Amino acid sequence: LYEKYHFVNAQYIDIFNILVPLYKEHYSEYCKKE
Prior knowledge:
rod-shaped; 1 helix; 34 residues
Protein backbone atom coordinates (compact mmCIF):
# COMPACT_ATOMS: atom_id res chain seq x y z
CA LEU A 1 0.00 0.00 0.00
CA TYR A 2 2.78 2.42 0.90
CA GLU A 3 4.70 1.74 -2.32
CA LYS A 4 1.57 2.36 -4.38
CA TYR A 5 0.95 5.63 -2.55
CA HIS A 6 4.57 6.64 -3.03
CA PHE A 7 4.30 5.94 -6.77
CA VAL A 8 1.19 8.11 -7.09
CA ASN A 9 2.85 10.81 -5.00
CA ALA A 10 5.85 10.76 -7.34
CA GLN A 11 3.54 11.24 -10.33
CA TYR A 12 1.94 14.26 -8.66
CA ILE A 13 5.38 15.71 -7.97
CA ASP A 14 6.28 15.31 -11.67
CA ILE A 15 3.06 17.04 -12.73
CA PHE A 16 3.61 19.76 -10.14
CA ASN A 17 7.17 20.35 -11.36
CA ILE A 18 5.83 20.82 -14.89
CA LEU A 19 2.84 22.98 -14.00
CA VAL A 20 4.51 25.34 -11.54
CA PRO A 21 7.07 26.79 -14.01
CA LEU A 22 4.35 27.11 -16.66
CA TYR A 23 2.06 28.82 -14.19
CA LYS A 24 4.77 31.21 -13.01
CA GLU A 25 5.65 32.06 -16.61
CA HIS A 26 2.01 32.67 -17.54
CA TYR A 27 1.36 34.62 -14.36
CA SER A 28 4.33 36.92 -14.91
CA GLU A 29 3.13 37.58 -18.48
CA TYR A 30 -0.31 38.37 -17.13
CA CYS A 31 1.14 40.78 -14.58
CA LYS A 32 3.02 42.64 -17.31
CA LYS A 33 -0.25 43.27 -19.18
CA GLU A 34 -1.92 44.80 -16.13
